[in-house]
Write a structure and sequence with these properties.
alpha/beta; 8 strands; about 25% strand; globular
Length: about 220
Amino acid sequence: MTYEATRNNVETYFDRTATKTWERLTSDAPVSGIRATVRAGRDRMRDLLIAQLPDDLHGARILDAGCGTGALAFELAARGADVVGVDISPQLIDIAEKRTPDDLRGSLSFSAGDMLDAGLGPFDHIVAMDSMIYYSADDIARILEGIAPRLYQNMVFTVAPRTPLLMAMWRVGKLFPRSDRSPTMVPHSPEKLAAKVTSGTLRNVERVTSGFYISNALEFRA
């Protein structure tokens, strides 16, 4: 599938199917044991991505690409950054705007749209937590190539690692009719993905595994 087709599938999934689930998962509301492991894994990954950025973010302009309900954007803004949060799902953006703490409103802006929109301008840093996990290696390489001219320092993002469990889930997912599928994560090897990237350098950071949450953090520098 093309980048545009995958992006549209992700938008449809979150706006029509998963909004309530995602709203609950990213809140303090009680969740099932399985979802609790996912919540814990996402908390750990959020901390890991932030750790790849400077401690002092005052004066830094940061893009939160695929910001979802805004948790990562809030933490970056609290550290002094000027944060632009973009998500393909208007419903998730609505939740992020409602959750924005009053003392951060001057440091944050949220909008629904494509995270690759050049009209968003240049950034010192870009974070993309679990928003690129549905794309092929070729798509990710093109994403990084397109972002490189507008990136002053680094971009940290996640992919689904190529583990036996995720590969099995990926193969089973492809058996369903396309109309019945939720967006399927595409597993990647960091080393093979790095070989695709020609517009900068890609560094493997760390893998986070927490029950049903398995994700690998990477850092890109143009």
